[in-house]
Design goal:
Number of domains: 1
Number of helices: 7
Number of strands: 13
Distance between the termini: 50 Å
Structural class: alpha/beta
Shape: globular
Strand content: 25-35%
CATH class: Alpha Beta
Radius of gyration: 19 Å
Largest sheet: 7 strands, mixed
Length: 311
Amino acid sequence: MGKIAVVQESPVFLDREKTIELAIDRVETAAKGGARLVVFPEAFISGYPAWIWRLRPGSDWGLSEDLHTRLLGSSVNLRAGDLDSLCQAARRHKVTIVCGLNERDDELSQATLYNTVVVIGDDGTILNRHRKLMPTNPERMVWGFGDGSGLNVVDTPVGKIGTLLCWENYMPLARYALYSQGVQLYVAPTYDCGDAWIGTMQHIAREGRCWVISCGVALTREDIPSSFPEREVIYPDSEDWINAGDSTVIMPGGKIVAGPMREKKGILFAEVDAKSAVNAKRALDVAGHYSRPDIFTLSIDRQRQKPVVFK
């Protein structure tokens, strides 16, 4: 058994340094509470661009460009060491961290953003970086497409961890990629929420016979800074909660053991037993004895995709 902590907090919107400071503070709190795994929401550093669902594509070009510039400026460059202090916190408190972030590419164009989730080991090293394979609808105006290089399940002291972001969890083959690697703790940082989303998470727990940890974005109007352009138009005074969160922990088979944390901020704690995900596959193992490789096979390309190769 091991305790996990799901952090349902809003970031310091569009401020990388202060958001990372907030994350480090919550890691310390979670560690003091006995957690061995700490999970943050989708695009936590430094904010999910929720405005994309309210602006008019093409018509609000100037405002979209302004907001994108701010998002780019508050994004994370992994190779430049922007995440070093959070990695040090993982090592200092001996916890594994899963964190969503806006990642800025620095290898090629140095201008593309990715919706990324990283797994940081308790030694402070980044064990995996997964970029969202398919940004959803208007998200494609913000983030580039990820590739298969991050479709990995990694060993940690709390169990085998795999991650998919938000509506990637509706992609059966992406899920199967994690099932086939023996995922025990299936972590789903997300902007989605509500009963339908929770039902999807329960289905994944039944299908994959794994623990499912859904960490939702909690965002209120008060979290939007006064400097946000056209704040009163995009987020009127009559609105309180922009996104409800609904972080939930589900055991193999689909039973909810913690949450959903709806329209609240804080840390959701739960006890998980990674080994029970192995035992749960006795009756159903979709990537093992319940598969039919004579009929169905899945081929996954894990190569980093690049538009240019220098020789």
